[in-house]
Amino acid sequence: MSGENMAVKLLESDGKSVKVEFEGVPLAVANAIRRLIISEVPTMAVEEVLIIENSSGMTNEILAHRISLIPFVSDIDRYVPPEECTCGSKLGCEKCVVRYVLKAEAGDQPMTVYSRDMTPEDPNTTVVPVSGNIPIVKLAPGEKIELELYVRVGRGKKHAKWQPGIATLYESKENVEKRILFVESFGFLKPKRMVLEAIRILNKKVNNLMRTIKGCE
Amino acid sequence: MMFPIRCFTCGALIADKWEEYKARVDAGESPAKVLDELGVKRYCCRRMFISAEDYFDEVVEFRLKFGKKGDMRT
């Protein structure tokens, strides 16, 4: 594949989404980038919830599931997926886990627990919920929750909670030779970073394949 | 149950916009206008809002009236 006739242009860009125009890029390559954004770009979300106390009206599994769907601003340069970490520990180390505590108790009035009520073990961490206004559970007076949350790096192919955003590929209206890749981020990573990360992963996969084929000769 | 955190179809985060949406629609604004202003663009996410019924409030109300303090599981 020669890169001489390829042109990639950034059409639109804001904090949430980007539009990239591909010219002369094979459909298979452009589609591979789209698919990699959805399923392989790593992001961070709660993977494990330790329930110390839950006297709310919501069952443990629904509460844990709601918490797991909260997107976290992901630092994928610093953190690695647990299966790729060198620590080999089930609980994880400072390279593969960010710990949070969620503690709330309703007084005389019913209260709502929000994502901003989660407190990180390390107050300086950059891995924080994308929004603080996500309602997690409502508590009636006297009810209490106390949870320990383990935020880990994962990929969309393992669970949709790690899907970093939306990627769609379509033909340009003016010129069918051109294709447009629209990428929207859910807040885990910057949209530009998602595209670059997908290209890096694709490059790695192709190199691995080449090495394997050469090894067979 | 409570309003879902993510859109069932596309997976976008929607729960952070729920309370503003609910307050404004209850105050009489048109749901379409509120959703446009909140930046909820796709129809998969929009139907999450317009078809939502937060009946967890009723659960809380029930437990407020009938639940015992401390362990309220029956």
Could you explain how this protein is built, in words?
The complex is a heterodimer of chains A (217) and B (74). Chain A has 217 residues and is α+β, with helices and mostly antiparallel strands. Chain A contains three helices and ten strands; from the N terminus they run ββαβαβββββββα. In chain A, helix 1 (27-39) crosses helix 3 (191-216). Chain A is elongated, with a radius of gyration of 21 Å. Chain B contains four helices and no strands. Chain B has helices spanning 18-26, 31-38, 43-50, 56-66. The longest helix of chain B has 11 residues, at 56-66. The two termini of chain B are 19 Å apart. The chains are: A alpha+beta (217), B mainly alpha (74). Chain A binds chain B through residues 55, 57-58, 62, 66, 69-71, 110, 115, 130-131, 133-135, 137-143, 160-161, 163, 166, 184, 186-187, and chain B through 1-3, 5-6, 10-13, 15-16, 18-19, 56-57, 59-60, 63-64, 67, 69-73.
- Give the amount of beta strand of chain A, in percent: 25-35%
pLDDT < 50 runs, ≥5 residues of chain B = none
Q: What is the mean pLDDT of chain B? A: 89
Calculate the terminal CA-CA distance of chain B, rounded to whole Å.
19 Å
- In DSSP terms (H or I, runs of 4 or more residues), the helix count of chain A works out at 3
Main interface: chain pair and counts:
A-B, 29 and 25 residues
Tell me the helix content of chain B: 40-55%
The low-pLDDT segments of chain A are: none
Helix- and strand-based class of chain A?
alpha+beta
The radius of gyration computed from the alpha-carbon positions of chain B, rounded to a whole number of angstroms, is 15 Å
Major sheet details of chain A: 4 strands, antiparallel
Radius of gyration of chain A: 21 Å
Number of strands of chain B: 0
Instruction: Please write the string of helix (H) and strand (E) elements of chain B.
Output: HHHH
Report mean pLDDT of chain A, rounded to a whole number. Answer: 92
Discrete helix count of chain B: 4
| Major sheet: arrangement of strands of chain A | 1-2-10-9
